[in-house]
Design brief:
Number of domains: 2
Organism: Neglectibacter timonensis
Strand content: 15-25%
Shape: globular
Mean pLDDT: 94
Distance between the termini: 21 Å
Low-confidence stretches: none
InterPro entries: UCP033563
Protein name: DUF1015 domain-containing protein
Pfam families: DUF1015 (PF06245)
Helix content: 25-40%
Radius of gyration: 23 Å
């Protein structure tokens, strides 16, 4: 099962680099070029310079920058091996809602092929993103951000250990980015480290966020083996591990936008949907969101469809229809909202096949309902579908069956911050 181990993290030397809140950033794949420039203007040593390099030879530039920062003492490895405890404190709805907290464990995890059934994915990936991350890893031999994974622990043994450890000393870092308060503790005590590592001996890990980076870790490990490149750290990858049952886990939906579809006609789409769905007219966005949430609480599979002039809820009448639509899939996969939407509406009613979805020709994604509506109102999109969030239990069930959801099925909030700790793969 999962093998985890401590490591000597690469961390910023604040007396040379600056304040930690100026050196960290969100994951690279949600940062625009304007935001990237803003991070570098705030502090030229921001980790975005390594994680999302630009220029004619961006990957080589990242490798050169990393080497320079190591030589200058901007970055330095910890003297002792350790595990790193990470907490996020935040509001459940980004800018309002209940206050929540999630604590996890940052460590090295042995890279396993998916066939081994130890590290389990839940989403499909895109080739372009994997190529980008592979080129960066080859040029830098480093993990700058951690993969976000979940584990099952009915007795919450590990979570209790983490809680006890974080109560005994002050965090090494503590700061807010405006929405989330981040805290990091360093654990070097051999007894505590050993106990935490032993907890995972019988566990599987479920990737929550970072599928592209994990597949890249597999490719990088294989590349090192095939080319006799001695890089002992390539057998492991940096992860943040959280209890799947933690009340602090929050998943947001990712909405679908349909665009550039020849011959699109809203009334015809609604007529086609009537075959399997109850079509329920709504007045506006707030009403659509409220009623969609109510259907979610009732356990019904539903979406809010906006076509530019009207809102309609589409509520699946009989879930049994999915048995014949996706007979090769498990019940967990068949009854995902995204499976229902993609199979019965996007493919059957609109003719958008799986390859088209993967290449995002007629289908794009956003987490913002307002952005989805604006895209339709501007004429950029033909229509949009607002979804309810995927339940964490559904994610675990799909992964446990060795299956994957469509791309962009989940959005764990908040994203893990990048730059608190890094993992040099040239180290044992």
């Amino acid at each position: 099962m999962a093998q985890i181990k401590p490591f000597r993290a690469l961390r910023y030397q604040l007396e040379k680099a600056g304040r930690i809140e100026e050196l960290t950033c969100p994951p690279y794949d949600i940062i625009s070029e304007t935001q990237r420039q803003a991070y570098l203007e705030r502090n030229p040593y921001n980790v975005i310079r390594l994680e999302l390099p630009r220029g004619d030879s961006p990957y080589e530039e990242a490798g050169k920058t990393l080497e320079e920062w190591l030589q200058e003492g901007i970055l330095k490895q910890d003297m002792e091996e350790g595990l790193y405890l990470y907490e996020q404190e935040f509001l459940s709805q980004a800018d309002h809602g209940d206050k929540k907290s999630l604590k996890g464990l940052i460590c090295r995890v042995r890279v396993e092929d998916f066939a081994a059934g130890v590290v389990l994915p839940h989403e499909e990936t895109l080739s372009k993103a994997k190529t980008d991350r592979f080129n960066l890893m080859k040029a830098t031999n480093c993990n700058f951000s951690q993969i976000y994974s979940l584990y099952q622990d009915e007795g919450h043994i590990t979570r209790s250990r983490i809680e006890n450890l974080t109560k005994t000393c002050a965090p090494r870092y503590e700061f807010s980015d405006g929405l989330v308060t981040h805290r990091l503790w360093v654990v070097n005590d051999p007894v505590a480290v050993s106990a935490l590592c032993e907890d995972f001996a019988g566990r599987k890990l479920y990737i929550a966020d970072g599928h592209h980076r994990y597949e890249t870790a597999i490719n990088y490990r294989n590349w090192c083996r095939e080319n006799d490149f001695y890089n002992p750290g390539s057998e492991y990858v940096m992860m943040m591990l959280a209890d799947m049952a933690d009340e602090g886990l929050v998943v947001f939906p990712t909405h679908r936008l349909v665009r550039d579809l020849p011959g699109f006609h809203g009334p015809e789409l609604l007529k086609a949907c009537e075959a399997e769905f109850d079509v329920l007219p709504c007045g506006d966005l707030p009403e659509a969101q409220s009623r969609l949430s109510s259907l979610y609480e009732e356990g019904r599979h539903a979406f809010a469809l906006y076509g530019g002039s009207a809102w309609n809820l589409l509520a699946l009448r009989d879930p049994a229809v999915m048995d014949s639509v996706l007979p090769e899939k498990s019940r967990a996969s068949r009854l995902l909202d995204v499976s229902v939407l993609h199979s019965l509406i996007l493919e059957r009613c609109l003719g958008i096949d799986k390859e088209n979805m993967a290449n995002q020709r007629n289908l794009t994604y956003t987490r913002s309902a307002a952005e989805a509506v604006a895209s339709v109102d501007s004429g950029e999109s033909n229509c949009c579908f607002l979804l309810n969030p995927t339940r964490v239990s559904e994610i675990g069930a799909v992964a446990a069956n060795g299956e994957k959801m469509p791309q962009k099925s989940t959005y764990f909030y908040p994203k893990l911050i990048t730059g608190l700790v890094m993992n040099l793969l040239t180290e044992q």
